[in-house]
Write a structure and sequence with these properties.
Blueprint lengths: L1 E4 L9 E4 H19 L10 E2 L8 E6 L2 E6 L2 E5 L21 H7 L6 E5 L5 H4 L2 H7 L5 E4 L1 H7 L21 E3 L4 E3 L2 E3 L23 E2 L5 E7 L36 E8 L11 E8 L21 E5 L11 H7 L3 E5 L22 H14 L5 E5 L4 E3 L2
Parallel strand pairs: 3-18, 6-7, 7-8, 8-9, 15-16, 16-17, 17-18
Antiparallel strand pairs: 1-2, 4-5, 4-19, 5-6, 10-11, 12-13, 13-14, 14-15
Length: 395
């Protein structure tokens, strides 16, 4: 579809602009507006935690949406991001490539990681994953939506030369979790993903999800249908999906598409009991990948009736959705609330000892909202907003 733009009173040639370019222009304008005009937060009022060299069990915040856990000889990794590209002067980027030197500098030891979980496909969650998989997590299998896998499969060709935009990704290490599969003669219409009635207009009843076990058997995870809060004026930048695998690696912010957003329910198990109904859960973690309208991402009912011990909440765009974080905290009633995706990731260095909050978000407001809900609902929880690369003890 094209829209002719004409000028009158001059000897000009009519020009046409593809619809996609207009959408990108609108998206970029939005990125600029939220960066320039929206309010930020005072770092001093955030109560940032800076734990390090803690004893296991613990969880390490890697920055943006990345988290790392080591458990019983295995590791679990939630999509790490270190590159943090910018356009200029700390403004959001248009072209994005992984900064492999920075990844190598800041990615912690993770060779024991067997599960790499991805909640959605935006660049700040997926751009660094290929290099992390190749160089830092050789045992990891990635689990994500069909869109996430289809973007990463653009790097499946072995005969290409590694450069700034390309790293080989072994397609055998990629698993789609939200598409129809048949298991032991039973059809799982949404794959492993639990669906949620009323999430993004879903009218059908909710359907239970299915556990995915780590290769070592001490960790299991279940994806839950969720959504992504809008960035501005009800618009979510780079939404949409890829139904088939790509042949070219995305290098534009707008081509790293969101796909199906998912929360994750994660269990750290005491043993390798193969019967999920009998497995003993030591720690249960609920990871709300991005802020979402209730009941999107809600783990209800809780499998095996085991409560949530740790709730991880994304701060970005938290005030663009309704009843967040109130409803999710009242449901899960965790012992520990972790706040992530709170710091500025436009050109920042993950090792900065004084990380700045997202410039277009009321991060302080989110922290106060969590503290208020915990107090009013009588939830006996510790609340922590760690600095990137810092650690928090598991309850």
């Amino acid at each position: 579809m094209t829209e002719p733009l004409t000028q009158t009173g001059c000897a000009c040639t009519n020009r046409t602009f593809p619809q996609m370019n207009r959408q990108k222009l609108l998206g970029f304008a939005g990125l600029m507006l939220v960066s320039i005009f929206a309010h930020g937060s005072d770092t001093e009022n955030l109560g940032i935690s800076r734990g390090h060299d803690l004893l296991e069990p613990k969880i390490q915040y890697l920055g943006v949406g990345g988290w790392l856990v080591h458990w019983r000889g295995e590791g679990l990794l939630l999509a790490p991001s270190f590159s943090n590209p910018e356009s200029f002067m700390g403004l959001p980027p248009l072209r994005v490539v992984a900064n492999k030197g920075r990844i190598d500098k800041y990615m912690p030891e993770a060779k024991d990681v067997t599960m790499l979980l991805v909640g959605h496909g935006h660049y700040d969650h997926l751009l660094d994953v290929p290099w992390v998989m190749k160089m830092h997590t050789p045992k990891a299998t990635l689990y994500g939506s069909d869109t996430v896998v289809n973007m990463l499969r653009s790097m499946r060709f072995e005969n290409k030369t590694v450069d700034d935009t390309w790293t080989h990704v072994d397609p055998n290490r990629l698993r789609t979790v939200n598409t129809k599969i048949v298991v032991n003669g039973e059809t799982w219409t949404s794959g492993y993903m639990a669906t949620v009635q009323s999430c993004e207009g879903r009218q059908d009843a909710s359907t239970p999800g299915h556990w995915i076990r780590s290769t070592g058997g001490h960790i299991r995870a279940m994806p839950i249908q969720s959504m992504h809060a809008s960035h501005f004026l009800g618009i979510t930048i780079a939404d949409g999906s890829y139904p088939t695998e790509l042949n070219e690696v995305p290098t534009s912010v707008f081509k790293w598409k969101q796909g199906q957003s998912m929360a994750w329910l994660i269990d750290l198990l005491d043993d390798t009991q193969p019967d999920d109904s009998k497995a003993k859960v030591e720690h249960r973690i609920h990871f709300q990948d991005s802020a979402a309208n209730p009941p999107c991402g809600f783990p209800s009912p809780l499998p095996e009736n085991h409560p949530v011990d740790v709730e991880i909440l994304g701060v970005g765009s938290w005030d663009n959705v309704k009843n967040y974080p109130d409803e999710i905290l009242k449901l899960t009633r965790p012992k520990l609330v972790l706040l992530g995706h709170w710091e500025n990731f436009f050109g920042n260095d993950p090792g900065d000892e004084n990380p700045k909050p997202l410039p277009h978000q009321d991060v302080t407001g989110m922290r106060k909202a969590v503290d208020r809900v915990v107090k009013e609902a009588g939830i006996n929880a510790t609340v922590s907003m760690p600095a990137p690369l810092k650690e928090v003890k598991l309850p």
